[in-house]
Amino acid sequence: xxxxxxxxxxxxxxxxxxxxxxxxxxxxxxxxxxxxxxxxxxxxxxxxxxxxxxxxxxxxxxxxxxxxxxxxxxxxxxxxxxxxxxxxxxxxxxxxxxxxxxxxxxxxxxxxxxxxxxxxxxxxxxxxxxxxxxxxxxxxxxxxxxxxxxxxxxxxxxxxxxxxxxxxxxxxxxxxxxxxxxxxxxxxxxxxxxxxxxxxxxxxxxxxxxxxxxxxxxxxxxxxxxxxxxxxxxxxxxxxxxxxxxxxxxxxxxxxxxxxxxxxxxxxxxxxxxxxxxxxxxxxxxxxxxxxxxxxxxxxxxxxxxxxxxxxxxxxxxxxxxxxxxxxxxxxxxxxxxxxxxxxxxxxxxxxxxxxxxxxxxxxxxxxxxxxxxxxxxxxxxxxxxxxxxxxxxxxxxxxxxxxxxxxxxxxx
Length: 413
Known about the structure:
- One of its GO terms (biological process) is proteolysis.
- By secondary structure, the chain is α+β, with helices and mostly antiparallel strands.
- It has helices at residues 58-64, 69-76, 81-86, 149-155, 160-170, 382-409, and strands at 46-51, 93-99, 102-111, 114-121, 124-131, 135-144, 186-196, 199-213, 216-224, 231-234, 255-257, 277-280, 286-288, 293-300, 306-313, 316-326, 335-336, 341-345, 355-362, 365-367.
- Residues 1-35 and 257-273 have low confidence and may be disordered.
């Protein structure tokens, strides 16, 4: 739902400095009225909108549509066209107008703001890049979780991509979204939406967010300094939302087992301490490094199956077990970055099904990954603090206004 925000065009207050105003011209020169351009002539032939499938290439698409291979070679020979057309991905749309296999026109969007247009003329094919500007509008959303975060997000009109941004890029260091979410939790967002030719085409950046988890309120705002050195999400007091460790080492999924020192082992059928957290996920799901560090061990370890141990310094290590395989280049001593892919979910070792077993250890002692206190984040540098506080104050005031308006409009129980 769109919402008028305080302060005018607040969508850009944290990320786009105002542009300088051009001076008035010294004098105005009358111009002759322009002759309107002639209407564009639509190419003659059958129009086909083809959605790219997995493993498709342009050559395969032409064969499937029974289009001329000579026309394909001629099109790919145009300056800059081969690079633009070779990078097709599943879900992309390629529009072709043809007549009995002879191509008259080919269009393909190459970015949010550009379309490659190829047309046949008397002298052969010609290509041009057409500008399709994006308009950014500001929206807000509010939701209360009853069954799942995704269901609440859909009900609030928020895209899955934006909810993943909320969980993985903003609050993923404070909240384990696979484990900690419960009915009654709620969220408020102020975010950008992209529109083209008056049509909504997708969400963009979250500008401010609040998430209430089990009665505890978490808030964050986006801030980018004018010199480009600071860019990210921060708490209202200026602390970075990005900590040294993620709460969960994969995008949130259904959790099959919590930290439990008195857990009955499902295969051995006896009490055995379960000193970690299991994340049930499909085979091959990407596993991420919870923090910066070095690979301490990679290989097989008994019931753990394929396992990797990362050493993070300060006596902290993390363990990832039952993996189906390891990312390329993972070997002892290899440095890794937080969020880097280190392997993939599997069911090796003593596992009843595909899942990730994750442990967090301090000086060899197991800690509950869900509740262990993680090292604090550094505050925003002093040189940027005044600018941050001024801009964050505006967006947080708007977030509060959105909340008040939403709650006032909510029907009484």
